[in-house]
Predict the structure.
Amino acid sequence: MAAFAAHGTVRSPLGFIFTTHGWIVIGHGIVLGGLFVAALAATLAALLLYRPGLLTEAGRPRVAFGLRAAGLTAVVAGWATVLLGTLVVDPYFHGGNDPPAHVLESYGGTVRWVTWAMPAKENLAWMSVILVSVAVAAVFVLGERLLTRSPVRTLVLAFLALAFAFAGLAALLGAGLAKVGPIV
């Protein structure tokens, strides 16, 4: 059983202390970010399957539905992740009394995490979500025409692959920040 302490903190039976902000960071990075990356991978896989010669007439609607569902999930989870990060996690990281950014800046070896890693993570995450949104919009607008328009299909695949790479880098930087900074 978890015992509740003052100021929105929870102590686990193992002695770990989680603050309200810590739970928000976990929801932002692990839950929403994880859902975003998984849905993005599913969207990319479905689009790779969605090509002439690889699908039967009976299988085409199922793969098209999966492509749209995974894409829409990626867009919603991605925007939820970046908006929660921008509006809740980032102000906590940089503001308040004794913010994590201030603690990281006070140690000489961790200054780069504040000056380089956090802004890079934020920019990569935003670029990833924008690329996914454009790619999924193309999937919804073009539909079955993606089967016959090879250059557009290639561009949508490139956007999704680039978004996946950006999301992966943002996740690595976020994990690094969580490891060196007192966020959770």
About this structure: The mean pLDDT is 84.
